[in-house]
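Q: What would this complex look like in 3D?
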Amino acid sequence: MNLKELAAHLGLSQTTVSRALNGYPEVSEATRLRVSHAAEQHNYRPNTRAKGLATGRTMAVGHVIPTSTRHEMVNPIFGDFISGAGETYARHGFDMVLSMVEDGHQPRVYRELKAKGTVDGLIVQGPGVSDPRIGLLRDLDIPFVVHGRASEETREYAWLDVNNTSAFASATALLLDLGHRRIAFLNGLEAMDFARRRRAGFEMALAQRGLGPNPRHMRSAEMTEGYGYASAREMLLGADPPTAFLVSSLITALGVRRAVEEFGMTLGRDVSLITHDDDLSYLRNAGEVPYFTATRSSVREAGMLCAQMLLDLIHAPREALPTRLLEAPLVLGRSTGPCPT
Amino acid sequence: MNLKELAAHLGLSQTTVSRALNGYPEVSEATRLRVSHAAEQHNYRPNTRAKGLATGRTMAVGHVIPTSTRHEMVNPIFGDFISGAGETYARHGFDMVLSMVEDGHQPRVYRELKAKGTVDGLIVQGPGVSDPRIGLLRDLDIPFVVHGRASEETREYAWLDVNNTSAFASATALLLDLGHRRIAFLNGLEAMDFARRRRAGFEMALAQRGLGPNPRHMRSAEMTEGYGYASAREMLLGADPPTAFLVSSLITALGVRRAVEEFGMTLGRDVSLITHDDDLSYLRNAGEVPYFTATRSSVREAGMLCAQMLLDLIHAPREALPTRLLEAPLVLGRSTGPCPT
DNA sequence: CCCGAATTTGAAAGCGCTTTGGGCTTGGGT
DNA sequence: ACCCAAGCCCAAAGCGCTTTCAAATTCGGG
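A: Here is my prediction, written as structure tokens for the whole assembly.
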């Protein structure tokens, strides 16, 4: 059933039917009712493409997901973030189109998305310290919101980020307060902006007490379980083993726990651990007293907020681009305790 | 830059330019070269919506992701599956549109997708034992492929599934061979078809040795880490504690491991465990000798295969709907050993 | 040289919708 | 009784593309 048929069926013009359905004032309440009733009954939905063509709006936003062929790693964050964003889009009648793109081809894909006119706006995920995508999208003149920031980007852009620096600084401070001095730091890939900031927070907190990091106890890699396991194992076997771990991801923390327990030690007693917790739906670190002490920030909520920012931007493009910094509070769990003497 | 402009710029008609770019034979090689060169240079891309309107093809496929508001759980499978599928779509120039939909509203969304003409085909995820979506989509007459099966569905449909029954039967057989008799089974939600089949495999293997399951040692729930932890803890504290666990998800297995080690026991020695392993990119159970003994099947690959099936179906609708059953081989890890006496 | 076939190109219709610019009725004011 | 504004409604153009049908050009053979 399309507009023409529906109009014919009602003995009205397409114009009137269209207006009635889109809430224009120049149509009598009586016919509006009649029309919307018939539309309902015939399950009429305007064709998206036609509507888009006519209005210039696509009612769709794009997410470009980088896939590194090297390790075929999908960011575990991905699912929850998308789910949060998607919910918001759905509520506003927007579609979400996803493109999986190999790392190097991102610019091409962005250009195509613009040229083909598939979307009204974009979300940029996982920005690096310096990220060419941001400049490109500004030049393409298409609304976009960045989840995270790119420290070295000088031009303005809309973003939403977690205060990684302060979160990791307070986590570090807590460990120091507990008497830990040999703190290992298992970071994410430091080409990623968030990882760089976390490191800054860690080092800042140490510096405040006149301490410096031990390079042997600092790692940076993709945040898998195996990475946590292998690193912890190695460090615990080495000289001056760390008494505490600061970890960038709950998944990696699970690996650390595995190593720790394999050595017959107990987390929170023999070794302390603080991790960042993205509050992933399938990996809850919950309970009145959660298992891991953690800096927590829901990535699902971040998705919802990013989506909302983007929709606002699409509806009312403005000069001052919105930005938002979320705090990641420290929640106390059972994985931290005083440094054993 | 649009067709009209490009045509004007070349001093040709839109017709000719369109033909040249789409590889129609009735255009001289000389002008075809001239056209494609100019298109390249001006970075021309045909507008998707316009093209779609004209051809009736959208070059997009939809994934409808159920989100249960009850627990806001996103299936951890999701990311890898999407990533596999998305890669295939990208290679064929298809877009992927995602809809996050609350459990109850699925039929409405499918209807809308059809009526609005947003997609050429659909993937159905996580089918239940009896799933109304399948009948609906058949009635709507839109190409679709189901990831998994719906046992109680009698009509034909295209699907790709893992042989869950045989996988869990052989896992159970292995545990029995190792001497285990008290085997706990932590299954997924048994409204899901895959869970029902796994259970069937488990019970079948037991029955073959004249054994029956112990209801106290069988659980069914959403496959979180906490579920594994709590269940294992409870069972290990109870009477006749299990000596082995058969688990439906690696994440849940991690929870079981936590409980086991909390009791000072060692996996593979004091307690055995076999889990299903979806080979998730961020949770690899790899190595020459993987940590967990597991039935393994890459869900990322499943995504790629489903996508390919769907594209084939879109390009050449056929009467005989394709189906495909993947085996999930048992890989031996360090989490299994003979039953302690 | 001329003619019909083959080769190339174009004009225009149409995909399903929105929206501009009128047109036709009413009804109230004078 | 007449006029004008308000209230409703419609025909048609246009969004950017494909595709049908027809026209223009080229070319080989008689």
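A: To summarize the key features: Residues 2-4, 14-15, 18-19, 22, 24, 46-47, 49-55 of chain A lie near DNA strand C (CB under 10 Å from a C1'). DSSP finds twelve helices and twelve strands in chain A.
Q: Very helpful, thank you.
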